[in-house]
Amino acid sequence: MQDTPPSVPDFTQWPSFPFEGDIRVKQLDDPVPVEPPRRGEENRECTACNAPDEAYIWVGERWRVRTMDRPTGLPMVLILESRSHLDLGDLPNLLAAELGVMTVRLERAIRSLDGVARVHVNRWGDGSAHLHMWFLARPYGRLQLRGTFLSLWDSILPPISEAQWRENLAMVAAWLAEFGGRPLAEPPRIQWHAPSRFSTSPPDQAETADEEAVSVIEAAEEIPEPSGESVDAEDATPADVVPDGNTPAADADRQTGWRG
Known about the structure:
The chain has helices spanning 47-50, 93-111, 150-156, 162-177, 202-215, 248-254; strands at residues 58-59, 63-67, 77-82, 116-122, 132-139, 182-183, 191-192, 217-218.
């Protein structure tokens, strides 16, 4: 006898639920006796361990921050990773304490961006055994995006412009670098082109003006793409001292300069 599918849960009526229309709940699969290894477990290669620093927007002695390989629907989506091949529950006490500092610091850096109201911090870990924490920025004023469905809306909304995305990345990297580490994200470059020719005659002047209107500013196509691979929500592979060599006392003295 086939099980009766459960009724549609109440959250489908929440204003933040991204879908409408008829929805049917899937049948639950039978549990497997042994779960398959994640990336970085048993004989599976670890994506995070093999990624070079150039795949990240900011790197420090014990932590690295990466992003997607292209803009998405939210103002900012970042992934905080430990350099050491450890999962969340494997962190020694000193690294665990440092994770708290890095989480607060990165949340404040993202929240300092224009148009960001909140930063959601998530950890799933079903795809990779290497610790990675997700940071998703909710746009200011977009009340429909509040709550647990923000990661779904990120894939539904039209992507932000690449120029704005790169500018946001550079600002976050620079913000983090104020406390140590090395910023690797750069803002979009602007290439200025001179008119193809100059003339005193009115017809040629008009033609030159038309050419300038099209080609005065080159957008971010000149910026090389990051070498890091794209990640998704399931398979992402983003001490007695404060991150990047600052002592706890020195870091406490600098907290008054934190923005956000």
